[in-house]
Specification:
The chain is mainly alpha-helical. It folds into 2 domains: 84 residues, DNA polymerase, domain 1 (Orthogonal Bundle), CATH 1.10.150.130; 128 residues, hpI Integrase, Chain A. Helix content is 57%, strand content 4%. The chain has a 3-stranded antiparallel beta sheet. A hairpin with a 4-residue loop joins strand 1 and strand 2. Helix 2 crosses helix 4, helix 5 runs antiparallel to helix 6 and helix 6 runs antiparallel to helix 8. The model has no long low-confidence stretch (mean pLDDT 86).
Length: 295
């Protein structure tokens, strides 16, 4: 990776571009070692690229981010093929296309829907109900990504301070805050979790009902999907992120604080997520502003 970074320096790429490109290649290498039998760059084919981008889609990374990673890997393999006179797996493979910013406004979960969803989970006092209620509340009041919520460990959560340490894109760590009701739901879940037979051997926060293993992003997604279906709602985890952003902006929250909480470095992401129900916010703002000045 140092050789690739050196080539980027020679090409006078910015520090940020170099970081993005090398981080993407490092992430892809880790995925190859964990999920495939590939052990050398020259062994990578279109099949591995397809599987990797399907993996990214499965854990609900946005289309724009998948495109950024695709372009970074495209640059890496072009460099590698030129340096080593090796086949380039991108020769007949196109990375995911970028989204059209503002072309399609994302849906949000209405407040009455969110209330019904959480209320339904909180009816039960068994392990599954307590776990699901804590999950739903944490998604809703933090706006965290699916992978960030799924990969939480017990020690990452501080109920007294109402904070959680999450690992976001590119391995970046940040601390998010949650509300008192989420803290209560987590406390109830942790008491039930302590009775689970896997509690002493698994440090992951979320555990399956019957299996003594940490939950996967797919498993957490299925919980959200199933809970929504029970009430006739079509809901997926990433919808909570759009809803959190919409509610924050609608309540007059500062954009800079929102970027910090959501782990964003680019204003483009703020515009992308902020487009959710932008028309609704504008109509509410109209009623707060006297454009006629009393005339």
């Amino acid at each position: 990776m140092d050789s690739f970074d050196l080539s980027l320096q020679v090409a006078e790429k910015s520090t940020n571009t170099r970081r993005i490109y090398t981080d993407a290649a490092t992430w892809f290498a880790g995925w190859l070692l964990r999920d495939t039998q590939v052990r050398a760059w020259g062994q990578v084919t279109r099949d591995e690229l397809r599987a990797f981008f399907v993996h990214m889609q499965d854990i609900e990374y946005a289309r724009g981010y998948r495109n950024n990673i695709g372009r970074a890997l495209q640059a890496f393999f072009k460099w590698y093929a030129d340096e080593e006179e090796a086949p380039n797996p991108f020769d007949k493979f196109k990375p995911p296309p970028p989204p059209k910013v503002g072309a399609q406004r994302k849906a949000v979960i209405e407040i009455d829907q969110l209330a019904a969803l959480i209320r339904d989970a909180e009816k039960g006092r068994d392990f599954e109900s307590r776990r699901d209620a804590a999950l739903l509340r944490l998604f809703a009041c933090t706006g965290c990504r699916l992978a960030e919520i799924t990969n939480l460990r017990v020690g990452d959560v501080n109920i007294v301070r109402r904070t959680a340490a999450v690992v976001g894109k590119g391995g970046k760590e940040r601390v998010v805050r949650f509300d008192a009701k989420a803290a209560l739901a987590l406390d109830r879940y942790l008491r039930k979790r302590a009775e689970h037979k896997a509690a002493q051997v698994v440090d992951a926060l979320w555990i399956g009902v019957r299996r003594n293993q940490p939950m996967t992003p797919s498993g957490v997604r299925q919980i959200v999907k199933r809970r929504g279906t029970r009430l006739g709602m079509d809901i997926h985890p990433h919808l909570f992120r759009h809803t959190f952003t919409h509610n924050w902006l609608d309540a007059g929250g500062a954009e800079g604080d929102l970027m910090e909480l959501n782990g964003w470095e680019s204003q483009q992401m703020l515009r992308h997520y902020g487009s959710s129900a932008r028309g609704v916010r504008a109509q509410r703002a109209y009623d707060r502003i006297d454009v006629m000045r009393g005339v």
